[in-house]
Amino acid sequence: MLVERWNDAAGGFHPASAADYLPKGKLQEVQLRRLRAVVERAYANVALVRERMQADGVRPDDITQLSDIGRLPFTVKTDLRDTYPFGLFASPMSEIVRLHASSGTTGKPIVVAYTREDLGVWAEVMTRTFACCGLHRGDILQNAFGYGLFTGGLGAHYGAEALGATVIPVSGGNTERQLMVMQDFNVTAVCATPSYFIHVIERATEMGIDLRTLPLHTGIFGAEPWSDVMRQRIEEGAGIKAYDIYGLSEIIGPGVASECEAQHGLHVFEDHFYPEIIDPESGEPLPDGAEGELVLTTLSKQAMPVIRYRTRDITRIIAEPCRCGRSIRRIQRIGRRSDDMFIIRGVNVFPSQVEAALLAVEGTLPHYQIILTRQGGLDQMTVEVEVTPEVFSDKVRALEDVRTKIAKAIEHILGIRVTLRLVEPRTIARSEGKARRVIDQREI
Amino acid sequence: MKLQQLSVFLENRPGHLAAPLTLLAQEGINILSLSLADTAQFGILRMIVRDWERAHAILKNAEWVVNLTEVVAVDVQDRPGGLAEVLQSAGDVGLKIEYMYAFSMRRDQRAALIFRFEDPDRAIAHLKAQGHHVIEAEELFAAVEG
Q1: A424–B39: do the CB atoms touch at under 8 Å?
Q2: Which domains does chain B have, with CATH numbers?
């Protein structure tokens, strides 16, 4: 009756979550054993890894303690593109039971593979994710992550089923149908990208539906960085607790890390994904607590082991004990990516800074896009913002005011002039519910 | 006393005015009058239609940004000075006009002036007290569409 027990409040947990509570020494034992195995596997089966290790004079046997991971070569996103489609696979196709691919906004997508065992690990870490967010058997989950090549939909789907929740595979889009399902099926939890869910809340308000009166109590959000202001807007607008989850296709999909009830950092399922923080400039490892780029190594992946993958996400490791009782370490919520950053007229700019200005003026985050161009040798930054019913007015002066206020707020934060263009709704492209924030058209 | 005007946000680009108007045409909605405010970058299409609730729903469902604004229609003689007298009267008591447009009606050489006042209620009371004919929605539609 293990399943019944974790439903009780008396400190029980889902059996899949047992690894969340491993004592540090035991956890490190598991990590080292798995690290040695995955390095051996990659060395034996993936030419790119073997060649780089040979060039550095490192052999799998050299890994005798966890800190030796720093001797291994990094893997970067372009490695996955350069070996497109199957070059990093460590299993024959006869053992691979699933392929996914990234949405690929530029050029070829990246392809990732799973053996049956990998799918089992994926379902396990997603079960642990949902348990972290307080879901259990009996919850009715509306999964609005996109189903298809994107890892979000199916990743969440099998994890929630393994947990014992009721899954509604509604996928992304068709907001009115989402709202109908949410009302009619007694939905208690929802998975979505945060920007899409804000759209759902806005549409509900327009249709006179008060989400706060529904049984919905939990939202699980990921696939793009989102601010604390967005979280507050979601929690207040829908009357739910909104949790941040983290993952990436290159590593497994969703299920790498998840917030718990404390909503203070995301627990990394580090018995499967080993986290390091490095200085993004020098590549040198940084101690727990220091901010830098997150690097992940898959400890148990079979089909596509990934060694020291540079995520480009900027965060820090929180090693202090969490009040939820889990012993696995946490990462701070990711606010920015090192490759989202762009430099314009010598100024480093993160899209999150533009978001802060938009939120300050509009109160909610509209869809927006930053376009960089070069005219006569001078870089220009244009921000396109979709007009929302909240800011629209029949008066030209009122709209010009909105436009000026946003432009001034951005200029105030960045210290550079921007052109602000108000555009019609739906004119900024979205892929899988994720918005592409920066379009760099500069010829350099 | 007040009319509902539909306002639609448009980008100032070729073809962008046609799209919402084509949509309304397909739904059999006749436009009594419209005016277009434009800047270099965007425009606002303002329209008076009889079936404004349905038109509003149609545009909204097609995900146009559209809102409703209360405007005041004044029925005047279609002759030199017809408009000037109303403007004079409004100016006398400091009524603020955000914008206005006008069109002639088929009936009796008359014209309708559509005003977006900052304070429509005060404007109506004043104009009526001054003997101007503030026209009701039904009367206006009957006069124009017959």
Answers
A1: no
A2: 2-69 (3.30.2130.10), 70-145 (3.30.70.260)
Structure tokens at A422: 């108000």
> To 10 degrees, what angle do helices A194-206 and A175-184 make?
80
Q: Report how far residue A40's alpha carbon sits from residue A324's, in angstroms, rounded to the nearest whole number.
A: 35
Nearest-10 crossing angle of helices B52-61, B18-26:
120
Residue A51, both tokens: 């060649």
**Beta strands at B42-49 and A317-318: parallel, antiparallel or unpaired:** unpaired
| Strand runs labelled E in A340-436 | 342-344, 347-349, 368-375, 378-386, 419-423, 430-431, 434-435
Q: For chain A, list the domains and their CATH numbers.
A: 2-25+98-337 (3.40.50.12780), 342-440 (3.30.300.30)
- Using one digit for the tens of pLDDT, what is the confidence trace for A271-282? 999 999 999 889
- Both tokens assigned to B70: 């209360």
The values of phi and psi at residue A25, to 5°, are -60, -40
ipTM score of complex: 0.85
Cα gap B123→B129, rounded to integer Å: 10
Q: Which residues of B touch A206 (CB under 8 A)?
A: 60
Per-window interface: A 368-387 vs B, CB < 8 A? 387
Section A255-263 average pLDDT: 97
